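Q: How would the structure tokens look for this protein?
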Amino acid sequence: MNFLELKDVTFSYPPVEGDLDENGKQIVPPLLWEGFSADLPGGFVHLVGPNGCGKSTLLLLASGRLAPVDGSVSLLGKNPQALSEEERNLLASFIYQNMEFETDEKVENLLQQVYANGALKASAAPIRSEGGHKDLLSEVVEIFELGGVLNHPLTGLSKGEIQRVLLAFSILYGSKSIFMDEPMFAMELPQKEKSLAYLKDFVAKTGTTIYLSMHDLDLTRKYAEMVLLIYPNHDMDLGTPEEVLTNEDLEKAYGVPASMLRDGEEYTRNHLKEVSDLLGAKETR
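A: Here is the predicted structure in token form.
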């Protein structure tokens, strides 16, 4: 059984009420995929490609946060759309870097709640920060450098700090698969490296699958087990970083010389707005 199977998937986003063209007519979003099929593996998989190629849409469909217009999506042999919210969350977590929260709950309490109420059903014991055996809770606090913000409300954190908390949430909840859309954009490079090394090791040790979209190709080359390169026409290449991230294929995907792709931050900033608008439009429908 493949980890993720998409069969004859057709998908487009519904029209947004009030989104009109210059002639006052309703704008109808184009089809992103029509009759698309793919069998994709588990593991530590990085999604790369230019803005608008479908990375976010694929993650949302795979995790059951969006449903195809036609066709089917099977994740670990199940249709995530047919599951209850709790069952779907246990099958697949989804985080994106621009998530917003309205709670003033302290980070330590939130971490304990996620750990206690997820698939792991662990007891919400106090975080042990000194000596002794580290449980998973203490481990993620150390790896994602959260010791200094445990007593802070989530709403008072910086963007980079929130991203590190989200990464901790995704590990502590214990879903069978985790889908991450640009989860580290605001983090410092050493934090990104430390986090990616930990996530890759976590996948190897636990059998959890993690799919994450990245714009930093150097980090993908260094840490990805497999890479899914998505082209503007939604064609895909799957393979190891050495097989997929060739200069020829990158130039074909991004439409610019490979030398210009060393720093993906300019691409990421536009991508963040796209994901935020995408999810915001979905919530208003």
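The first strand starts at residue 4 and ends at 11.

Strands lie at 4-11, 33-40, 44-48, 70-75, 92-96, 177-181, 209-213, 226-230, 236-239.

Upvote if useful.
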